[in-house]
Amino acid sequence: MTIELQSKVSSLLEAIASRLDISPTKYKQAVDRYSAVSSWIADGNFEGVNDIHFYPQGSFRLGTVVRPIRGGQEADYDIDVVCELQIDKNVTTPKEIKLAVGLRIAENEKYQKMLDEEGRRCWTLLYAEQDDVGFHLDVLPAIPEVTSMRKSLVYPRIVEKAIAITHKNKDQSYEWYSSNPSGYAEWFNVINKPALDLVKSFQQRTLFENNKDIYARIEDVPDALIKTPLQRAIQILKRHRDVRFAHNEMSADKPISMIITTLAAQLYNGEPNVHLTLQNIVNQLDFLSELLKPGYTLNKSLQDQELIKRTVGGTWVIKNPVNPDENFADRWHENNHQKAKAFFQWTRWVKNDIVDILGMSDVGKIVKSFESTFGQVSSAAARSLGFPTSAVVASAPIIHIASPNKPWGK
User: Fold this and answer.
1) Where does 25-179 sit in CATH, by number?
2) Which DSSP string do the residues of 328-394 spell out, in sequence order?
3) pTM of the predicted model as reported, rounded to 2 decimal places
4) How far apart are CA 191 and CA 146, in angstroms?
5) pLDDT digits (tens, 9 = 90+) for 169-206
6) Which of 14, 153, 196, 321 has the greatest number of beta carbons closer than 10 A?
């Protein structure tokens, strides 16, 4: 691929990811909404609570938001906010904390009407659509984790960020789960920062120039809207997953975003554009599919990294990088390794649909191939760059691909 074509392809991938992302206007709206909810909760009377800390978690905090697909159609954005009550774990229970937060939210007449049924871990507020886009705001009740539960964490600064979150079981009982969303965000940011420093000045100025109705100064543009090749690659991978598993028989086993984000961050080598970033990440993920085969072998580099391990007993391990006691793949062995098979089927799809296509020498053919994978998002991105598009696909709904080949056989 020539340098000129690589530049065009990277621009196309950037434009696709940008259209999957939350817009500056919607981002500000989301921040305003979770700030208002946080203020309301903070003004409540919680017995024994010294203070309450609120902060976003998940893709909203990591800068990897994509509009989700449900039932084959684009759905509301999911915004996750931690509500961390500063109280000793020994003097309260998960049920008390969960219900206290829910009760406080329901005391607001406006929020009571928007409040969904109690979730396993969160209270969810359903905001009506504006400009055809809505929000699900998930409020996660939590308290600081006790010191004895933090000792297994691997990064000293991150240890103190661990929290205990509430979890409601099917039998209606409640228990604590350990988590560390702030620690994970810090780990991710360390990996992402060198690339962020390179692109920040240009992107910040561009965002300011295009959104002067929102920002009075360049400095007002939040870092959360600055996107590196790693973040863009993760957004594209997440959307590809959502499209490929829509209406698919394996939809219940599709890879979770935490696994995609963790592996992508660990495999990122500072590539300067989205094209090279995707090639590197996807090719290495595809190599890992060897783990499905009897007597598998991995190259030394992947073996040493231990990104995905298959134990002698047949279980799978993908460690949380900030909490090695947490295994993201703890259910991969179930149902004859169905989740593992779904993951590696997806990596093969990504390689076929994106990485192999990038080897073409004609940008028009690349655009056409992306249209069959990403639908109207790809068409809109191509048109914005003056690339040829298909008029049929440009107005088409979300596309899904039925009856795909299975790399592991029957």
Assistant:
1) 3.30.460.90
2) TTTTTTHHHHHHHHHHHHHHHHHIIIIITGGG-S-HHHHHHHHHHHHTHHHHHHHHHTT----HHHH
3) 0.90
4) 28
5) 999 999 999 899 999 999 999 999 999 999 999 999 99
6) 153
